[in-house]
């Protein structure tokens, strides 16, 4: 059986299920090398401002090992946070046919990419885009450096339209690219939790015919939760509510800016097992991000799997692929007039929101873990 060594920092809910699925399918052999080095499942998330331990299994059903990390400040938030002196030796011991690296901007990951070029096929997975503006000098330097980086990559799995454009700009050709969509556990999120969702709405004081808009995620600048709050308050529509679910450095500011409005609600960070209920309680999910670095927005996938209308800014990497007038709306980042107009339009009819949610659920079905696994298998089996 052909073997694939996978290099990634730590177990996350968007990739561990793919590793399990690849193992279950049995078409290729895989081993995951986790480079953060700490086998504790609790990781500090700067965006949430706390240690996060996901409450769903992320290490079941596939082969993996923790690689010793000698960084003085371990973590995935900076390039020197991942230093693994024996990573290459461990991969050699596994004797794979190819390697798949998630993210190059870590000391050990880039070293592995460079080391294995011309020795093994080097595959890459990342989700960067060209959506964030940079100055001309920085753009030139970035172009030169990233073209050098991607000369070491033989094949990349792109997550969507914006990510594909990024890979093309920095030197990868059409025959070096395969579509492996950003995905979430569609089945888990689509399981109905109507009773729990209705209970949540009742506890918030949201009526059956009221419209509830949801923001769920890190309360940080790049996601622009304050813009959403300002737009919602300016609309001042009857029978509408706004719910923020999450934590982060902007929490206190948002509470203050809500001025005690009883139709604006706040709930702390919710873990993965609870999130389907949260999404199913809402009518519209909004991700108003301004970036930089909103490369996708997997919360949009989750909301769509729960059958919800979605409202996103054009700085969200997913907008080009997942959002249209059939299932929601896209507004220009930081443009409060466009966001306000979109809210007014969406608030107009709950029946229309329901149809949009149905369109979301139908579209997101094909953005699946199975699609990712199939793309990886196809590439390796044809080496």
UniProtKB/TrEMBL annotation:
CDD domains: GT4_PimA-like
Protein's UniProt keywords contain Transferase: yes
Swiss-Prot/TrEMBL keywords: Transferase
Single Gene Ontology MF annotation: hexosyltransferase activity
Keyword ATP-binding: no
Species annotation: Mucilaginibacter mali
Origin superkingdom: Bacteria
Protein name according to UniProt: Glycosyltransferase family 4 protein
Residue ranges of every copy of the Glycosyl transferase family domain listed in the record: 200-360
